[in-house]
Amino acid sequence: MSELRRPRVGHIEFLNCVPIYWGLMRSGALLDVDLTRASPVALNDALVAGELDIAPISLVEYLRHAEDLVLLPGVAVGSDGPVLSVNIVHERPLSALDGGRVALGSSSRTGVLLAQMLLTEKYGVDCEFVQAEPDVPRMLEKADAAVVIGDVALRAMYEAPQRGLSVTDLGAAWRDWAGVPMVFAVWAVRREFAQKNPGQVKAVHDAFLRSVRLCLAELDVVAEATSRWEPFDASTLAGYFRSLDFSLGERQLTGLRAFAEKAAARGEVPPLPTEGPDLFCG
Amino acid sequence: MSELRRPRVGHIEFLNCVPIYWGLMRSGALLDVDLTRASPVALNDALVAGELDIAPISLVEYLRHAEDLVLLPGVAVGSDGPVLSVNIVHERPLSALDGGRVALGSSSRTGVLLAQMLLTEKYGVDCEFVQAEPDVPRMLEKADAAVVIGDVALRAMYEAPQRGLSVTDLGAAWRDWAGVPMVFAVWAVRREFAQKNPGQVKAVHDAFLRSVRLCLAELDVVAEATSRWEPFDASTLAGYFRSLDFSLGERQLTGLRAFAEKAAARGEVPPLPTEGPDLFCG
Q: What is the distance of C-alpha A22 from the center of its chain?
């Protein structure tokens, strides 16, 4: 009697990934994976350390470890315009942050780098960047702007106006600046695992593609079910889910390469090979 | 904006509970619970310690902590005859174990007590009981019989004949002896949680009842899907799932009370109140 090991797969415990979880659940695919639910940062580390075989990973972390990883095409978390949940929260206009201090939320990798690119390269401001726990009121006690992602950022967007704060949506700002979609997280498989278990990776990849299709068809149901437990109503959640782009096709890859090029120019990541990124083709 | 907390619910990571997981998954109920997947013993401890709100719990542990817990009717893991996965593996007939040593697998609470009842009360043997890790070959190095449950027991049942070992199915032996079904695990909610959150408990209870109905209708699909990752083929798994009784109705409660009475007579648990067990009625 042989014993197979289910692939160790990561799942982001943020609202933005609930639709993908829904798809994995309703399609029955959860039975075929050993799922670890955690924060993006914890999943980044676990995939890089080889504690997971397949997981979503922050674009920046993927670029840093592209040698060990292969991307799963067709699935990502990105946006082609406003993303609602990757934000700079600020008191004065971004162009007036020169000489100021910007707090970078510790739960973000790609969002905080995008914010730094935007502030220094587009707005030409010279400011100090400091790491901070992702808690907007506390960040703004010691800084002039706060970069946050995920549920914290989504909530900040709704609460900022009543506190006299401005919010810059980094998905929209990137689109406006670079003219291409932004990709915040990709799904990757460890290269060694993919070489040894191509059939298993293909099965998980197919399951993710099915999940994305299924959840897109049922976004209102997902939003309704999710709203029972979250501080957002169903229509807010449906709008949020629809602002996200869960696909990774040619346009998104163009956006990914544009971001990779800017990140490499800043010395933050190694350059992507010309034909990169390396895509899994089961 | 209010923030609700999902009920903290336990799930047994044994093959016998895959059908229930399937039901929770396919019905979408997983989205409404904060699910912890663990071994039965870990879940027993977590529910008793208040780290979970609702969880499956070994019948013996339920009886020991019945004051703090309320049973969810309609869902259980039991059998009305062979259960296939709660076994005594032995070299000589049970009646010849007098003066011998029986190793009790540490992953079991109810199964090991049932084995002790059967050996001492039905077979009248006087033997030494010792705790051991649930590993049949190792247990039999130092004992004449081994009591194991779950996947280990199921595998032992298939492997025993070729090793010249006998297997006594404790579900069948109980049925034969007591004339009523056996209940190995029940689902319970902490009394305090149920008093404070009756609506949430009703929702989770309904989800479990739906899951049981759904999985019973799809047992062959569940078996086929599960067989990809387990050392058993689909028909073996389907047979196993069909041997289990996931219900908790009047007949099963009669079996539960009969076991509780014998357990109390041995001083292992406090007696159930006459009108017990206390059932949740949402």
A: 18
Confidence of residue A4 (pLDDT cuts 50, 70, 90): confident
Mean pLDDT of chain A: 95
Calculate how close chain B gets to A148, using CA atoms only, in Å: 19
Question: CA distances (Å), A43 to each of A54, A55, A159, in order?
Answer: 10, 7, 29
Neighbours of B168 (CB within 10 A): 18
- What number of H helices and E strands is found in chain A? 12, 10
**Cα A116 versus chain centre, distance:** 16
Is the Cβ pair B32, A228 closer than 8 Å?
A: yes
Residue spans of chain B under pLDDT 50? 1-2
Whole-angstrom distance, CA of residue A121 vs CA of residue B119: 79
**Pairing, β B145-149 against β B101-105:** parallel
Contact of B82 with B171, CB cutoff 8 Å: yes
- Measured CA angle at A207 (ends A247, A8), to 5 deg: 105
- ipTM score of complex: 0.76
Candidates A203, A187, A177; CA nearest to A247 is: A187
Q: Which two tokens stand for residue A164?
A: 């006299």
Residue that has been written with the tokens 């406006």 in this structure: A176
Kindly report the backbone phi and psi dihedral angles of residue B267, in degrees, each rounded to the nearest multiple of 5, phi listed first. Answer: 75, 15
Instruction: Indicate yes or no: CB of B1 within 8 angstroms of CB of A232.
Output: yes
Exposed/middle/buried for A254, CB within 10 Å: 0-12, 13-18, 19+? middle
